Amino acid sequence: METEEPTKSKPTVRKRANAIKPFICKNLIAVIECPSDIQNVGTVIRNVNAFGVEKVYVVDPRGALPDDWQEMRQRKSLTKTSVSAVKWSFVKRFDSTDDCFDHLERNHFHSIVTSPHVKGKSSIYLHEGDFTEHTKLAVWFGNEKRGISDRAVERSGQCVAIPMFGMVESLNLGTSSGIMLYEITKQRREYQSRYRRGRSKGKRAETLPIVMPREETPTEI
């Protein structure tokens, strides 16, 4: 007879939450624009949670996701593909690209888009970028088939590309978001370890850790 896996106690969850708190990259948002497969949203959320990105925004004109975050956390399709990371990551949906940009700009976020080929926009490779320049940063990922939209490119500040050296210059959404977010969070975690921003701006008297001690590293959630 199958036995149910024991659930984690509240003190254990609280301890884990306290342990990861210093490693979260403040004011960093990953934006998924018009995903065609809702399961890919779960994959990106898993990456977001693993690398310590603060929030996820989803441009969802088809209405595939609910507006209410609590309801979204109960979606089996997201829970399964995100390995339950959706329960621990804040996710907000928008009806259109412009709605999302309007919200970000009202809150003083600088946006960059990810794409291997963009014309008419400042473009850099991932390893060339300084992702600590802007206090509030939103990183946009495009549709799995069409890539980032022209409108998102138009309203963003820069395009960032992952260098590729094969015959096929293409990565799936889960892989590309993982590579991008790893580099961006690494830079921002190192920066926020040494410097404060906002009203208490300046160098910290004592640096924060940038890597969790091996024995404290959380397991998959």
Strand content: 15-25%
Q: Give the termini separation.
A: 25 Å
Helix amount: 25-40%
CATH topology: Alpha/beta knot
Fourth CATH level, the homologous superfamily: SPOUT methyltransferase, trefoil knot domain
Kindly provide the radius of gyration, computed on alpha-carbon positions and rounded to a whole number of angstroms. Answer: 18 Å
Number of helices in the DSSP assignment: 7
Quickly give the structural class: alpha/beta
Offer a quick outline of the entry.
By secondary structure, the chain is α/β, with parallel strands linked by helices.
Write a structural description.
This protein is of the alpha/beta class and 221 residues long. It has one domain: Alpha/beta knot. It is 33% helix and 19% strand. It is built from 7 helices and 9 strands, in the order αβαβααβαβββαβαββ. The strands form 2 sheets. It has a 7-stranded parallel beta sheet with strand order 3-2-1-6-4-7-5, with helices on both faces. A two-stranded antiparallel ribbon has the order 8-9. Helix 2 links the parallel strand 1 and strand 2. Helix 2 packs parallel to helix 7. The longest helix has 22 residues. It is globular, with a radius of gyration of 18 Å. It starts with 9 loop residues before the first helix and ends in an 18-residue tail after the last strand.
